[in-house]
Write the structure tokens for this entry.
Amino acid sequence: MAYKAIHLFLFAHFLLQISSIYAKVPAIIVFGDSSVDAGNNNKIPTILKSNFAPYGRDFSGGQPTGRFSNGRIPTDFISEAFGIKSSIPAYLDPKYNITDFATGVSFASAGTGYDNATSNVLSVIPLWKELESCKEFQKDLKGYLGNKNLNEILGEALYLISAGTNDFLENYYVFPERSSQFSIDGYQKFLLEITYKFVTELYQLGARKISIAGLPPMGCLPLERTTNVMFGSDCVEEYNNAASSFNDKLKVLVTKPNKEHDGIQLILSNTYDILSDIIHNPDSFGFDDAETACCGTGFFEMGHMCDKINPFTCSDANKYVFWDAFIPQRKRTKSLPIM
Ligand SMILES: *[C@@H]1O[C@H](CO)[C@@H](O)[C@H](O)[C@H]1NC(C)=O
Ligand SMILES: *[C@@H]1O[C@H](CO)[C@@H](O)[C@H](O)[C@H]1NC(C)=O
């Protein structure tokens, strides 16, 4: 998800949830999708990229980095709040090495999901491969730190997972494969089995402090509203319901590893309600617009359509809840008028 000012709210909310549990955090290790990709997609052959203006225009130095935002992303703020560093680099960014990654690294890839079929849609990095990269990183870290501090760092580090939106909006609701195979309820369970397995594998790799992000009210993302013109461009209830019932199941799921795995501190970071509040009462949070995005017309642009020659981009992104329309859904956007 790519918006700036709102990150501060989500981040504050998030921090409240985690800081009491996780006092000491030497490093932050990140997995997931565009909500937390710091530029890994720059280095893979996918069309889903954001390493060009106006992305990054409010980032330090005004540089597009491959973050799907005009500025920093939530994980950057979290890192800063823990007193580590102001931004977390992408694992595939050649400008950084193990010296940097030792205090925080993002394996995330925009467009990915829990489901392998989701990462195939836009040829991005599947979640299981993000975990493979993490294993590689751990080997390097061992070489860098020696055995002495390794387990302590791995156990004290904070592991963040943020994914799932694309499984629904890029995959389930778009292609027949999963939707003919599963009901929404069944698909949620399928995804949560993968989540559970992922957490268990992380635990086996030494992770103890793990936070999983719930889904946002994904029917209120600008592109979803745009495709809902028949209903006055309201939020798409069906998608919001899918997100909140997924979050309910996720809430139950996180209790399981906490019982089964010694020493694990797994939490759900659920920003659905606060985000929904902001979207429905933007004024009270200092925003002018929660329906359209800053970039371009705000109705559908994301990725390559949100570029610097688009004349409609807003001048002050802080007034908008959304920076871009979020969903890089080529099929759907193709049928929309392109200005
Ligand atoms: C990482 O890069 C920095 C400078 O960019 C360099 O000084 C350092 O030696 C590198 N570290 C390793 C372990 O390669
Ligand atoms: C996803 O793909 C990987 C690699 O082929 C495989 O190991 C894993 O089991 C797959 N996950 C699911 C849920 O099918």
User: Anything to note?
Assistant: The longest helix spans residues 184-204. The pocket of 2-acetamido-2-deoxy-beta-D-glucopyranose (ligand 1) is lined by residues 97-99, 144 (CB under 6 Å). The radius of gyration is 19 Å. Residues 22-223+234-271 form a domain with the Rossmann fold fold (CATH 3.40.50).
